[in-house]
Amino acid sequence: MPRLTAADLEDAAQSATAMCSLVSGLPGVDEVGAHGRIAMLGTRSIKTSSKNWAIDTAISMVDLTTLEGMDTAGKVRALCAKAKHPDPLDPSVPHVAAVCVYGDMVATARAEVGSTVRVAAVATAFPSGRAELDVKLADTAHAVAAGADEIDMVIDRGAFLAGDLGLVFEQIKAVKAICGSAHLKVILETGELQTLDNVRRASWLAMLAGADFIKTSTGKVTPAATLPVTLVMLEAIRDFHEITGRRIGMKPAGGIRTSKDAIKYLVLVNETLGEDWLNPDLFRFGASTLLNDLLQQRQRMTTGHYSGPDYVTID
C-alpha cells in the first residue's frame, strides 16, 4: 500500500478529484499470492467445539434473501417467520441478521419481524444499477420510508469500467445522504469488474464515499462471491481501518450454499481482520439456501444424524 494518511483519506472522501487520484494510485493485487493464501487457509482443520460455534455464528450472520419477480407478500411473511425462528423445534437456534427484499416488500417484512430482525432492501435500480440518479434516490427514499434498516445499493459498473469513477463516487454519496440512519451496503458486482485490481479500487471508492458495508454481488451474475475476491475486499477494509479507525462491514453474497463454504469465509475474516469482525454488525452472508444446510449440519452435530428432507423449509 502507498503511505496514506488519515488526512489523505479525508480529502478523498470530500473530493471526487482527490478520490480518483488516490484510487487510481493503489498498487496492483498479487493475484498468485491471493490464490495461494486462500489455498493455505483452506487446509485449516476446525475442532468440533469451534465448528458448533461457527455454525451458530454463521446463522446469526445470514441476510435471508428473496429477490424474485414472483415474490408475494405471503412468501415474504413465510421468509420472515423463518428468519425469526430458523428451527421452530429448537429455540436455541439464533435468529438471522436480516431479511433482504425488494423495496415494495419492505413494509410487509417490517410488520412481520418487528425489532427482532433487521430489514434490508435492495435499491438503486437493482440489479443493473442503470438508472438516472433521481430514480435511484427515489427508490432508496421509498425503502427507507417503508421501514428499511439497511439499503443494499448497486454501483454503475458501466461507469466504473469506463473510468468515470467520480460519477460512481458521487452517486454513492448521494444515496448515503438519503439513507439517514439506515446503513448502506454498496454492491460492487465483482463478477463484472473483471480483475482483482478493479475489485480493490471499487472497494476503496465505496468506503471513501461513505459505505457502511461493501458487498460482493447481487447474486444475479456469475461468478458471484469467491474467496479470492472476498480476501481483496477484506484487505481493503483492514487497510482503511488501520488509517481511519473506522470499521467497515463485509458481505459476500451469491453462491455460498454449504456450511463448509461459510466456515471458510469465517476463517478468512478471522485471519484477515480478527475476531472483532466475527459478528453480524460487521459481517453478513447474502444467501437464500445457506441457512438450510447450516440447520441440517447443526442438527447432525446435536443428534448425531442428519434430518429427513422435510426438516427445513424449501425457500
Task: Provide a short characterization of the protein structure.
The chain has helices at residues 6-14, 16-24, 31-41, 48-60, 73-84, 106-113, 133-145, 157-161, 165-179, 196-209, 227-244, 259-272, 290-303, and strands spanning 62-65, 98-102, 118-123, 150-154, 183-187, 213-215, 249-251, 285-287.
Radius of gyration: 19 Å
> Percent of residues in helical segments?
40-55%
How many strand elements?
8
Domain count, please report it.
Answer: 1
> Which structural class matches the secondary elements?
alpha/beta
Distance separating the two termini = 43 Å
Q: Runs with pLDDT <50, length 5+?
A: none
Tell me the CATH architecture: Alpha-Beta Barrel
Order of helices and strands: HHHHEHEHEHEHHEHEHEHEH
- Biggest beta sheet summary: 8 strands, parallel
Write a structural description:
The protein has 315 residues and is α/β, with parallel strands linked by helices. Helices cover 49% and strands 11% of the residues. Strands 7-6-5-4-3-2-1-8 form an eight-stranded parallel β-sheet. The radius of gyration is 19 Å and the shape is globular. It starts with 5 loop residues before the first helix and ends in a 12-residue tail after the last helix. The mean pLDDT is 94.
